[in-house]
């Protein structure tokens, strides 16, 4: 005899939508960015130098501390130089450098690119804001 139930059967199914497979999703991360000199704008705002070379300001714009050091890279043309960036407290800045400026860079002006957290030692919330193009007017 076939099974029969006079009562209606209600089945509920739950579907879970996974927005990300990354276990860090939804967790605030460190956000390191190159920082212009206060009050400056544009690419020239990243030019902070003296006789020893170029200095880069790195700001942690997140609400959590960057507890590990990382690497900040400056590229002049086809020459790249890496220096250690110290741990940076939330909302604070650190100056990294000097990066020796290669001879011949000032062929009129000296262009460079800054890459903070270059080796991705820190999980960075927004990887697309880690780089900036700078110029020192010759």
Describe this structure in words.
This protein has 138 residues and is mainly beta. 0% of the residues lie in helices and 35% in strands. It is built from no helices and eight strands. Strands 1, 2, 3 and 6 form a four-stranded antiparallel β-sheet that branches. Strands 5-4-7-8 form a four-stranded antiparallel β-sheet, with no helix packed on it. A hairpin with a 2-residue loop joins β4 and β5. It is elongated, with a radius of gyration of 24 Å.
The helix count comes to 0
| Helix coverage percent | under 10%
- Uncertain stretches of 5 or more adjacent residues: 14-26
Number of strands: 8
Overall body shape = elongated
Structural class: mainly beta
> What letter string, H or E per element, gives the SSE order?
EEEEEEEE
- Amino- and carboxy-terminal Cα gap: 95 Å
Mean pLDDT across all amino acids = 82
The major β-sheet equals: 4 strands, antiparallel
CA radius of gyration is: 24 Å
Indicate the proportion of strand residues: 25-35%
Question: What topology does this entry show?
Answer:
Elements: E1 32-35, E2 48-50, E3 53-60, E4 70-76, E5 79-85, E6 93-99, E7 110-115, E8 131-136
Antiparallel strand pairs: 1-3, 2-3, 3-6, 4-5, 4-7, 7-8
Search tags:
mainly beta, 138 residues, four-stranded antiparallel beta sheet
Briefly say what this structure is.
The chain has 138 residues and is mainly β.
């Amino acid at each position: 005899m076939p099974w029969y139930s006079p009562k209606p059967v209600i089945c509920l199914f739950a579907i879970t939508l996974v927005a990300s497979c990354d276990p860090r999703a939804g967790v605030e991360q460190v956000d390191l960015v190159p920082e212009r000199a206060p009050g400056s704008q544009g690419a020239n705002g990243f030019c902070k130098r003296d006789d020893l070379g170029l200095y880069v300001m790195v700001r942690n714009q997140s609400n959590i501390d960057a507890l590990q050091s990382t690497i900040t890279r400056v590229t002049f043309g086809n020459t790249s130089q890496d220096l250690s960036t110290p741990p940076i407290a939330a909302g604070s800045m650190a100056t990294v450098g000097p990066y020796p400026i290669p001879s011949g860079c000032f062929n009129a002006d000296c262009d460079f690119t800054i890459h903070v957290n270059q080796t991705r030692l820190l999980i960075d919330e927004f990887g697309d804001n880690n780089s900036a193009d700078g110029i020192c007017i010759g």
